[in-house]
């Protein structure tokens, strides 16, 4: 185990799907609010430090802030404040071994450090991915009607494609992955956008849930041949989980074979097996277990193991899906290293996989596959 | 491992969902009929002692009846008869370490020892949970029409709420968890009850499958702020398993946030991950792996492990879902102890979780969470 | 572990679901095309030797061709060619320990060695299973209309039942397992067949996707009391995975209890738990994890473990689902042996299962259950 473990510890990572980190100091409630996918506090006085992720933070991050392992949540947050967010970010991000951050910019605002700032703070490379629904929402707040929407969307997507290395869609929790796989007609898209414009309130944010418009976004993104990330499975309190099974979008996947656009399935929990099936069968499909690794804490090795049951080794990506907390970057990295160390060591120690193959596959998952999928990474 | 193991062995349990045990002697066929969720005998001469649960009975219960481990089913049942049901119940229930039984009274009749009798036999505390569909069925057998049903139901539920610590619904196998989340209008409920009354046969039992009436029961139960147990997943030959995925009732869960009513998801197999997701995201949702632990026998540690991947430690409950056989109480208890010993020992031994945290979380799952959720337990 | 391991190594197997092996020499592309369920090559220069199955081939098969473990794919295919297909088939099939091949003849043509040829090459017994959709397709290419189809189908199925030990359906990927459970009326079947005949092109193969006709086939097969195999879950690029959940055909299963026809659920990944649930509850349902064991490689033990969580030990079958490559027979056999060795050894070593029971259950899964289910095997 020691050889594989040492190799994994030294792996530089491409985090192909993450978000910014908060720049401000956080109190206990602020920290706990970012340490869960829930939108509500726990009853009966529970703490989000008493979750699989909370346990991981206290085991893995506390020592990096000079605290004993398993310190209490209160002690942890107090020490965090004492050091200040810049120092905490520096220490935690610095220990992730992430060389390249591919940051999805569609959620959160100026309270987050963006790609460039994280790059500056860590010395790592950074790229952007743009969220399709956000691009459309900003446009739907400005346009006079569906006709203008369709026309200007083309320009906006072209502009995005010029700077972003990929697009992301959250159709999973705006509609479900059981969307109609067909490209919608432009007349239908215009009509749907007209309806959104008619309903919108001046100055209020538009929240896009119209399935026709979202499908239009997906197909427009496919045209631009940028990798298209899909939120899959767990990761938001808005979702109906069974409708986030990626096999519900199989026909869309089938129709985009050969377009030159890669589809990357994000998080996938508890559908990592379904996602790996799609990655095996369809040449342009990739998967990661991002958010799931963080939120399953020291139970995450089984999740990673299942994602590797069926998937070819050149179809699996690394991500943290970190949002807000640098702890999500750190735990996402260390828990993933722990998981693949266990999995690959077991194979190599039993002489079921050659050590050279293990190293090659680990390189691919850590960074090589992402470098293949995303241009200029 | 020894410290955690010893601690787990000594844990007193609140079994938050179980049923009575049979008071009569059982022959081989009688025992085997209660040792499965199937309604049919196995072809080709198979025995329900040759199942994961049957293996567990022969390993864990046989020694308590002075038999060698792995005795045959025939020998086991013969020894059971020799000792007599009272002694068998005393020995097996006495070895469970269950301090409090929360007994759901909606299935089985006078052949079962009820809550008070189990309490008397074991010296343990006992509480009752009432099954909504049974309350409605008894009433539908008596009333003249929908109007009377709706009126008298209010009284019946109030009476139940005065003595029961919770309600249970089996909508999973009467309809599916994909029921309409909206509260039905009273006119619709009356009409539906009228139809049931019109169809009923004098003296015959009514079996409630009407979705409108069941939804009315659910919302009436929510009004009474008693924990509401839902059968989820595996556990009955009536079910269409995919319709028992708890994520299909997400919208109902969303609409009951903040009502003060806890929702407890029972058994959950093979949807323990979906259930744990809901328990993480929604503040009033809890889960257990009751029946699944028994029926997966020595494979149950993986099921428990999956239920602990995502769930906060203050959202997981212990139950046996035992029905009829005291063996289901004993195996449900010992298999659960074996599972959590393995899971928490591995974390503590690897210094991934502090021993103090482990003890705290084990206390919560064994009894503390149930004491929070159910009043007066 | 050593005793169980030795016992498992010596077990003779009935492979209750497999296909022929190719008789021709294969180049690298030819081999890789048969080493996946995908229909497309991998982008970015990936190789199907860098998949869980490819790793298993290089670990388990290479030594049987006098190569070092973990040899490259290119070296492996070169050595294969050097030895020639006959010798490769002889060596690999000879090392499987399969005593009886039950070969499904519905896919592939003269490029495959059939049942008799495999029997001759290996000295093993061999039986046939016929694919319902293929029987109907050949007939639909010949008949003048629906009336003739219905009449002649009866004869064709009788002829099949006289030589085949079972039937197989691929309704999973022609329609989905969510087919209507009711037996269709003959008038509807005739009308549906008329439509197929009206649409067909002279000389072109008919591909049957009509749900009414397929249901007719299923019920006709049930009448003939031959075991009826269903493709379930993973195993073809045509499928929408979520529609291949076997619990979607629960009502059909319910309606066929007591017909005397066994239903065997094939592969089942990732629905092995759902399949095992059905096998526990319904007396005529059986399952295997065939293709899944091969394609999950050294991750397969977990898949087998899950299939054994709930299923009675007399309801689980062995298969390889091998098609084309003798490597699929060899890996299917050795990976299954590895999995059950780990699972049963752990139980026996912990004194949770008696060694005598373990041996009895292993015999059942290896061959006894298949001998019960299939007549004359």
Automatic annotation (TrEMBL), chains A, B, C:
GO terms for molecular function: hydrolase activity. Residues 142-326 form the Amidohydrolase-related domain. It comes from the Bacteria. InterPro entries: Amidohydro-rel, Metal_Hydrolase. Pfam families: Amidohydro_2 (PF04909). Gene3D superfamilies: Metal-dependent hydrolases (3.20.20.140). PANTHER family: AMIDOHYDROLASE 2 FAMILY PROTEIN, NODULIN 6. This is Amidohydrolase-related domain-containing protein.
